[in-house]
């Protein structure tokens, strides 16, 4: 297995994963989406709400605010020893929102005050509710670790997709350089140089094969295929975790599942023996 980084920053990465099966690539993708835990608001207790929005609507908005997550200091609720419905300091963080409008105003995610400064909204400018003069909202919110397979608010990624690494070949001897394939390509993968068609952005190819359809030569002088053991991944974090941590945690989860399965198979074999 090989990994080649094409683009990278804290919240986005584009890389080529080679030497693996489609099943393994999809397992990594699914683990990043549904298995890597992140923090989100789960329970909300309202003490006062005179805004135009119902409690349920505001609670739903709060739950969808992505939160900076500390995986080293907290454990998922289902793994915590407390077994409490509302959790304990090991598995949950409390946030308070207490705002009274002196004039018309918008309440933002930055108005939430968390007991742990390491747990906070990814952005302070996410609108929650608009208040008219003298309107008030006072609530207590409980955030906890969860997984995307239980609710989308716990998905740590906003984009997580892959495609096969494309292979585009032009038969120079048969290509007459008409340029019709160049015009047909929506991603500008091809260009004409010295009267010949050349591949200049192979990785941008979406495998649509419009260039093949446009080629007037029979059979077409251009061929589009793909490497079945190489994939281009694009992963974008919601900001709750660095994208590198999401990928590492996904790999750890797959490793653990594989180890558990191997132990189970071994145990079954010993019982039958």
Structure summarized in a few sentences:
23% of the residues lie in helices and 35% in strands. The chain has helices spanning 22-34, 55-63, 180-184, 210-214, 243-272; strands at residues 2-9, 12-18, 38-49, 92-100, 105-108, 113-114, 127-131, 136-146, 157-170, 190-193, 196-199, 222-237. The longest helix is centred in the last third of the chain and has 30 residues, at 243-272.
Name its key features.
alpha+beta; four-stranded antiparallel β-sheet; 273 residues
Task: Explain how this protein is built.
- By secondary structure, this protein is α+β, with helices and mostly antiparallel strands.
- It has five helices and twelve strands.
- The chain has helices at 22-34, 55-63, 180-184, 210-214, 243-272; strands spanning 2-9, 12-18, 38-49, 92-100, 105-108, 113-114, 127-131, 136-146, 157-170, 190-193, 196-199, 222-237.
- The chain starts with a strand and ends with a helix.
H-E order: EEHEHEEEEEEHEEHEH
Q: Helical element count?
A: 5
Q: pLDDT below 50 for ≥5 consecutive residues: which ranges?
A: none
Sheet with the most strands?
4 strands, antiparallel
Structural class: alpha+beta
Give the strand tally: 12
- Percent of residues in helical segments? 10-25%
Radius of gyration: 26 Å
The coarse silhouette is: flat
Strand order of the largest sheet: 1-2-12-9
Q: Taking all residues together, what is the mean pLDDT? A: 95
Estimated share of beta-strand residues: 35-45%
Distance between the termini: 35 Å
């Amino acid at each position: 297995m090989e990994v080649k980084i094409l683009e990278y920053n804290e919240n986005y990465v584009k890389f080529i994963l080679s030497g693996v099966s489609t099943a393994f690539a999809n397992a990594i993708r699914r683990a990043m989406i549904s298995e890597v835990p992140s923090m989100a608001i789960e329970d909300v207790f309202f003490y006062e709400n005179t805004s135009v929005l119902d409690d349920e609507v505001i609670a739903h908005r709060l739950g969808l605010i992505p939160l900076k997550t500390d995986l080293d200091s907290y454990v998922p609720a289902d793994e915590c020893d407390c077994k409490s419905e509302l959790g304990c300091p090991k598995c949950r963080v409390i946030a308070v929102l207490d705002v009274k409008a002196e004039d018309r105003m918008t309440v933002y995610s930055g108005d939430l005050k968390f007991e742990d400064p390491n747990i906070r909204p990814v952005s302070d400018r996410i609108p929650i509710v608009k208040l008219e003069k003298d309107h008030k909202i006072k609530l207590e919110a409980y955030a906890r670790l969860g997984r995307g397979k239980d609710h989308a608010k716990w998905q740590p990624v906003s984009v997580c997709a892959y495609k096969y690494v494309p292979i585009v070949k032009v038969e120079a001897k048969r290509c007459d350089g008409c340029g019709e394939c160049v015009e047909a390509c929506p991603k500008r993968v091809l260009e004409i140089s010295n009267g010949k068609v050349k591949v200049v952005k192979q990785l941008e190819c979406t495998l649509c094969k419009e260039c093949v359809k446009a080629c007037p030569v029979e059979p077409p002088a251009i061929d589009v295929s793909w490497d079945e053991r190489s994939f281009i991944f694009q992963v974008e974090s919601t900001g709750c975790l660095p994208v590198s941590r999401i990928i590492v945690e996904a790999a750890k989860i797959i490793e653990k599942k594989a180890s558990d399965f191997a132990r189970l198979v071994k145990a079954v074999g010993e019982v039958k023996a």
